[in-house]
Amino acid sequence: MAAEIQTIAINTGGGDAPGLNAVIRAVVLAAHNRGWNVVGIRDGYDGILHASEYPDGGIIPLTRASVRGITHLGGTILGTTNHGNPLAFPVTQPDGTIVEIDRSDEIIAALRKAGVGALVAVGGDGSLSIANRLAEKGLRVVGVPKTIDNDLDKTVITFGFDTAVTFATECIDRLHSTAESHRRVMVVEVMGRYAGWIALNSGIAGTADAILIPEIPYDINKVAEKVIWRERSGRKFSIIVVAEGARPKDGDYSVIGREIGRAERLGGAGARVADKLERLTGKETRTVVLGHLQRGGTPTTSDRLLALRFGAAAVRALAEGQSGIMVALDPPDIRYVPLNEVAGRMRCVPTDSDTVLAARDLGISFGD
User: Fold this and answer.
1) Is residue 352 part of a domain?
2) How far is CA 161 from CA 20, 191, 241, 317, 366, in A?
3) Is 149 a catalytic residue?
4) Catalytic residue among 149, 153, 162, 209
């Protein structure tokens, strides 16, 4: 089966993450070393679905020269998008109404016309759900798990996560001095969607006083009690780390927007916590939203190495005749898991995990 492959394609979908370029480089080099050609699809699947809008046609050749010197670069040389899911692509009708159609057959037809025998799809849960559908329709596909949120099932970690946590921890470290100088409460909002991995890990490493994550709905009064206790103990400042998906007990997520063809946009969780804490404690409170700063910049050594291992393993899987699988980290090895066991599933923080228990032992409040 592997002998049938002459050309493979690679695309990067969803939010960008440090390490994407390392994956691209690994795929290209591993494929060329097997005598295969490689092409890249622009901006997720937009290079196919909107091919006429690209001067280069939306599908470009990737050579050794194309990927030289990109391992340490953030972002993705192919571009990415989290708009326009091809399985539910929004189309405006003549009467102004919007309907969603499945354009996956167009993607498969375009790839076959380009002589592509297999696809390496790099992305998070949304992108891998699309990859799973393409595999079910007969396209040879191997998925590579990518997300700074670390919320993909069946892999111990995703690349991009370590860089995001490292940056968030550095930011929390910097806030300690200004918070103590002004005797303020500093609320730091971090990404993570509906999983608290970034908040939990950066909060513990950055010695936060409270960490609010989606998996443990919080009582703001409990958080205020922590701040007041510190005040009375002579600690006149507090650091509160808030995941963007954190929500109060009997409350909902903080959503700032909903658009057709993409997931709802979370935001404002930190501001909501800060406003209530200031009123409950009487202490001056400031909010810092790290936002997309967590996505950019140079990947850490850990993320580079993992991304390179994933990319090489994806090509190796295709050479072994695999399809419909995702490469996953199962330390110390990379193993293969079926895409249908990953698609549509989210890995959240177990509330009884050792990391959560360690945080509680250190006196960190979760607001519960």
Assistant:
1) no
2) 12, 11, 17, 24, 22
3) yes
4) 149
